[in-house]
Design brief:
alpha/beta, 6-stranded mixed beta sheet, signal, SBP_2_dom, carbohydrate binding, Rossmann fold, 6-stranded parallel beta sheet
Length: about 325
């Protein structure tokens, strides 16, 4: 009996430690980027606290998501903590005292799903970001319509008025797009009048910033049949274009970029970049917190909130 009580006490202590760890992260996050009162503003202290779980990536895309989420938390009177999904702490989210959870699911779906069920059983609202989970009932989702992203790519290819041999370069820094690559490629195929010389090929770059450089060098040297590269990450776009410039081979392949980084806009204006795909990660982060706030305070929110995709053209 004593052993049983001791074990129960250990479990309770473990739950308390988990709660304190999450609380500590929350306090540090709030002190580092205050979401209550800010300079020159008289805002009430947040009455509810929510948690955002993202892949362990320092990409500009993820940083913009965080920025949008923090702005939304301020606007809706919420405290916000940000956690790395790969640290293993997502499974303990239900013990953290959080009022709601947003997660960008990139790990094993079974692991994510079991934690989502635990959160639901505890009455903790959840919102998925960018990539859904296959389940009997849909979970609230905020993110990019990747079929629409594919259609935008197809429209750019159609405007080139030539039979293209296309390689789409996916990235682990944009995991939501990679996870739904079939939707992207279905969107391309849906564009009326588009005729490609060969089926679309795909490649995947890692978090390593040299991955796009190596890929561009390989294509320039060994795959002369490729006419167009489509990137789904800002850093990959910039790295690949730098290779073209360094080798004095601008124009050897058409490049469709990703994002609105200042340097990308410069490449657009000079014609080095054919076009760039524009999604709004800051808006995704903002809307995810907004939808979660509605769930917490009203018990209802839209099942899916789409973030539009647009195109900026070279010379514009």
């Amino acid at each position: 009996m004593g052993r049983v009580l001791s074990r129960l006490g250990f479990v309770a202590l473990g739950a308390l430690v988990v709660s304190l760890v999450f609380s500590g992260v929350l306090i540090v996050d709030l002190l580092g980027s205050p979401i209550g009162n800010t300079a020159g503003e008289d805002r009430p202290e947040p009455d509810l606290f929510v948690s955002l779980f993202l892949p362990a990536s320092e990409s500009p895309y993820m940083q913009q998501i965080i920025q949008g989420a923090r702005e939304s938390a301020q606007d809706h009177g919420l405290g916000l903590s940000v956690h790395r999904l790969g640290d293993g702490n997502f499974r303990f989210a239900g013990l953290s005292g959080t009022n709601g959870v947003i997660v960008y699911p990139t790990l094993d779906e079974q692991y994510i799903r079991s934690t989502l069920y635990d959160l639901r059983n505890r009455g903790i609202p959840t919102v998925l970001m960018e990539h859904g989970i296959h389940d009997v009932e849909p979970w609230p989702l905020v993110g990019t319509n990747n079929f629409d992203l594919g259609r935008r790519i197809g429209e750019i290819l159609l405007a080139q008025n030539q039979e293209e041999r296309v390689v789409i370069v996916y990235s682990q820094r944009s995991p939501g797009i990679w996870a739904e690559k079939e939707l992207v490629e279905m969107g391309i195929a849906s564009v009326s009048g588009l005729s490609l010389a060969a089926p679309v090929q795909s490649r995947l770059t890692s978090e390593n910033p040299l991955g796009a450089e190596d890929l561009m060098n390989q294509i320039l040297r060994n795959e002369s049949q490729v006419t167009t590269l489509v990137f789904t990450d800002t850093d990959d776009t910039l790295a690949a274009l730098q290779v073209l410039i360094d080798l004095n081979m601008v124009g050897r392949v058409e490049v469709i970029g990703f994002g609105t980084d200042e340097q990308i806009l410069d490449y657009l204006s000079t014609g080095i970049l054919t076009a760039t795909l524009v999604i709004r990660p800051q808006e995704i982060g903002y809307n995810a917190v907004k939808v979660l706030n509605e769930q917490i305070r009203r018990g209802f929110s839209p099942g899916y909130q789409d973030t539009p995709v647009s195109v900026l053209w070279g010379g514009s």
